[in-house]
Design a protein that fits this description.
Blueprint: H1 16-28, H2 34-51, H3 53-73, H4 81-100, H5 102-110, H6 144-150, H7 168-180, H8 185-201, E1 205-208, E2 211-215, H9 236-252, H10 258-271, H11 278-281, H12 289-292, H13 296-299, E3 305-309, H14 317-323, E4 329-330, H15 341-344, H16 347-354, H17 361-371, E5 376-379, H18 382-392, E6 400-402, E7 405-409, H19 412-415, H20 423-447, H21 457-462, E8 482-486, E9 492-498, H22 500-510, E10 516-518, E11 536-542, H23 544-567
Parallel strand pairs: 3-4, 3-5
Antiparallel strand pairs: 1-2, 5-7, 6-7, 8-9, 9-11, 10-11
Length: about 575
């Protein structure tokens, strides 16, 4: 809960889950009639569904695990009676909940949904050390020593998903209760459920101090609908439910003195105190006077479409739009962990999101603005003035400074030549330009006598073989979708990320010179590819002779492309 106060606030609304457990217990103890259980459980299930599809799916999975354990723990005499008795009303509750969710389900399946994993479960799994070492969300983790350790827990920055810390007193209390009650149905059920949940929370690969090691059982669920997008670190929600039940039962027992129980409960509280530094939990949300004073009404028409820099999730444009009462529209926004497909197809969007340079940015920008009927660009950050000023200066308009922002009013005639172009045209041009630049960079790097084993996009950029501000990361494959590095037997691998239709011209042009083509990587391309082909890795492998020929071909292609761009935007095939 503390971690998700830093983001994904909807994940704080998990109270229906323990209430659902309470309902089930009341029904099994015959303290709640079926006619009340079914609608009440349906309301809770629908509430969970409304909070998060991920939480709904994982609640269903771990609920099924709990029922399975309950069946096992019941013993031979009463085996299955309670479980069988609750299955029918529980199924009816699910039916009612899904009936209530029918409009949502219709739009989900009728108009499409993301395929594949939205975020990698491997990157959001519990590190073994995190079970012992808290993140800075906790008072005990808010010191330099602990922060150095906890910073390695996740491959992504920030502590929001570091969910595994179990306070030592809580672990001791749960262990004491489960060991003393292992011969009871309740003790066995809680112990087994806790163990299975912790194992699943480790994820598909074991993590230790930030190092990804061997595979774990959750890897078996990586290919199931919904669950393949579930983040294992969030399974700790169910582990803490079991820990809380164990601690409550331990505290309620009369077998130990009142003083011991109070001391144990107090120790749990002390070890779980949140970070008291207000600066950790908040940061100023600066709103330029252009928005806060209402001056935007003088310069923008109602429902006019604008682009605001910083773009999307890298800035506060959605906050400013909300504060304006949704007065203007935006060709941007942050609606999830990834940019929606229709916008991700435009290379300039990724350039704005990650502040990366791209080939032909002026043309890419104009095409995007024309496609989305953007008439004004608002620059609210001095950093963007410096980075994007040269590109924005090609829009044929002089910026106007108004109360802390720069306004670029774009004449329709400036964008008219780009009205009939399509995102695919610009994807093809973008991917081909990057791939051909990587080919030339690899050839220049090796011709200069440098070590192939050290070749990466970042290394090539550092040496001046790639344009500045292209690389994002230091591996052979970087987060800007560039692939450049050694391959087996002294060969060279070159690649980019793109949809199949956008990289097919690259494959057609350079595959005859390559030893192998992989798309979507790591699958070798031997025919028309199948499956989800949106924004996947293309990797081509060359020997030294093939690379030299491909680089010469790339130089000629780039010369022709520059000559063509001087004439006008590309025509749609």
């Amino acid at each position: 809960m503390l971690g998700h106060m830093l983001g994904q606030l909807f994940l704080l609304y998990v109270f229906p889950i323990p209430l659902a457990v309470l309902l089930a217990l009341l029904f099994l103890e015959e303290r709640l009639a079926e006619k009340y259980f079914v609608p009440l459980a349906a309301v809770l299930l629908f509430a969970i569904f409304g909070v998060s599809l991920e939480i709904f799916a994982t609640t269903t999975v771990f609920g099924a695990i709990a029922l399975g354990i309950a069946y096992y723990a019941a013993g031979s005499d009463a085996r299955g009676q309670g479980v069988r008795r609750i299955l029918r009303p529980l199924g009816a509750s699910y039916g009612l909940a899904m009936a209530a969710a029918a409009p949502y389900l219709y739009y989900l399946f009728a108009f499409g949904f993301p395929h594949g994993s939205i975020a990698s479960p491997k990157r959001f799994s519990c590190d073994l050390l995190n079970f012992l070492v808290p993140a800075p969300t906790n008072l005990l983790g808010a010191n330099a020593l602990m922060e150095r350790v906890s910073s390695s827990f996740t491959l992504l920055p920030g502590p929001a998903e570091c969910d595994a810390y179990i306070a030592l007193p809580l672990a001791a209390i749960a262990f004491s209760y489960l060991r003393s009650r292992w011969d009871t149905r309740t003790g066995r059920m809680l112990g087994l459920f806790l163990g299975i949940t912790l194992l699943c929370a480790i994820g598909p690969r074991l993590h230790f101090a930030g190092h990804m090691l061997f595979g774990m059982p959750w890897a078996l669920f990586d290919h199931l609908p919904l669950l393949r997008s579930a983040l294992p670190g969030r399974f700790m929600l169910f582990a803490f439910l079991a820990l809380a039940l164990s601690a409550a039962l331990w505290t309620a027992e009369d077998a130990r003195s009142r003083a011991v129980r109070i001391a144990g409960a107090a120790a749990v509280v002390v070890f779980m105190i949140p970070n008291p530094d207000a600066r950790f939990w908040s940061k100023p949300a600066h709103t330029p006077a252009f928005f806060s004073s209402g001056l935007y009404r003088k310069y923008l028409a109602k429902d006019e479409t604008v682009v605001i820099l910083p773009y999307g999730q890298s800035g506060n444009s959605m906050l400013w739009q909300a504060e304006s009462g949704m007065y203007f529209r935006m060709a941007e926004g942050h609606t999830g962990t990834t940019v929606i497909d229709d916008f991700q197809r435009w290379p300039i969007v990724n350039a704005f999101q990650f502040r990366r340079a791209i080939p032909d940015p002026q043309e890419q920008l104009k095409a995007f603005l024309a496609a989305h009927d953007v008439s004004t660009i608002i620059v609210a950050d001095p950093r963007d003035r410096t980075e994007w000023g040269p590109v924005l200066s090609t829009l044929g308009t002089r910026p106007v400074e108004v109360d802390g922002v720069l306004l670029y009013r774009i004449a329709p005639t400036e964008l008219a030549p780009y009205k009939n172009t399509h995102a695919l045209d610009w994807q093809i041009a973008f991917n081909r330009a990057r791939f051909e630049q990587l080919l030339v960079a690899a050839e220049r790097y090796l011709t200069s006598g440098r070590n192939l084993a050290s070749l990466t996009p970042f290394r090539a950029e550092t040496l001046g073989f790639l344009p500045a501000n292209w690389s994002l990361g230091q591996g052979v494959y970087d987060r800007n979708g560039l692939w450049l590095g050694p391959w087996r037997d002294g060969n060279v691998s070159v690649g980019v990320v793109g949809s199949y239709s956008a990289v097919k011209p690259i494959i057609d042009a350079y595959a005859p010179l390559a030893l192998g083509v992989y798309f979507p990587y790591p699958q070798r391309l031997v025919g028309p590819p199948k499956g989800n082909l949106f924004m996947r890795k293309l990797v081509m492998v060359f020997d030294r002779r093939g690379l030299a020929r491909a680089a010469r071909m790339a130089v000629r292609a780039r010369t022709r492309a520059r000559a063509a761009s001087a004439i006008g935007p590309p025509a749609h095939p």
